[in-house]
Amino acid sequence: MPKVPSQTINGKAFEYALLNQFFERLEKITQTSIVDNAPFQTALKCFETFDEKEQGQYKLVASFAVNFLLDIEPRLSNGISEKDILQLEIVSDKEGQVGDVRDVLAIRSLQKWEIGISAKNNHRAVKHSRLSNDINFGQKWLGFPCSSEYFAEIKPIFDNLAELRTASKATQKWSTLGDYHSSVYIPVLDAFKKELVRLDKENPGIVAERLVEYLIGNQDFYKIIKGKSKVEIQAYNLHGTLNLPFETVKPKFKIQRLKLPNRLIEVVYQDNSKTTLLVTLSEGWQISFRIHNASSRIEPSLKFDINLVSAPHSLFVNKLFVG
Fold this sequence. Notes:
Layout: H1 6-26, E1 32-34, H2 38-48, H3 52-72, E2 86-90, H4 94-97, E3 104-108, E4 113-121, E5 125-127, E6 130-132, H5 137-142, H6 148-167, H7 180-202, H8 207-216, E7 221-226, E8 230-236, E9 264-269, E10 276-281, E11 286-292, E12 301-310, E13 316-321
Parallel strand pairs: 1-2, 4-7
Antiparallel strand pairs: 2-3, 3-4, 5-12, 6-12, 7-8, 8-13, 9-10, 10-11, 11-12
């Protein structure tokens, strides 16, 4: 396997552990199959890089999460007939680039039903998006193109970075630029902030909702965050497709539908920060955008580490402590 970051290996291993626990629990009570695709094989290989004790920990945490999901998703264990097969699948990372953040799917084609899980190992970031001269974030994220004024503001900054990279044959480091937070990050963030506010003003009631859908996901899903001795389950029930009954079998807990925002309230710098913007939206949503260079060497693009700071009070969250 080519060298991949440990965070990726941990995440993929957790995806495999979840899918495997679903299969082990459900194959005894309903027709169940695993889609043996390339993402499944990758996740299995990542899982197999751990020793038996660590694998046991992954399985234990995954089993806690799966047991809870069986209580709130009756369609996992209930089929209409022998032909109603529950298909378990690990999806390609490419799906996340088009707004679907789910890693593991449980599908019943006969019921025209599916649920998805975003599996996280010790981290809460929602997206890692980039800014550069040729990335039209307005079009890509929201469906509305960025203005020529926005590109005119960021172009000299990214052009200069591209020239430095070319002149040094891609060896010059960011540290040679001195206070690049002030000379690079702040002007780019200022342009981004101005453009986001403009897009919202020109498309009232739409941009705030689309921003959350792009960042959080355009499909309903459960986010399962694995910690050392606990697992957290969050339900992003934006469109009302989670927590459905099966015939007369009702879920053991009720999950409210989340309200999407319809208004951008403000975009401000986080206190004492030159790298992070806080975007506050209606309905209790707040998102942080921390800009950073993905590599120690200069390149003509910057990366956002985007985190959900707060969500509506109706976001279902359950923390299970693992022995």
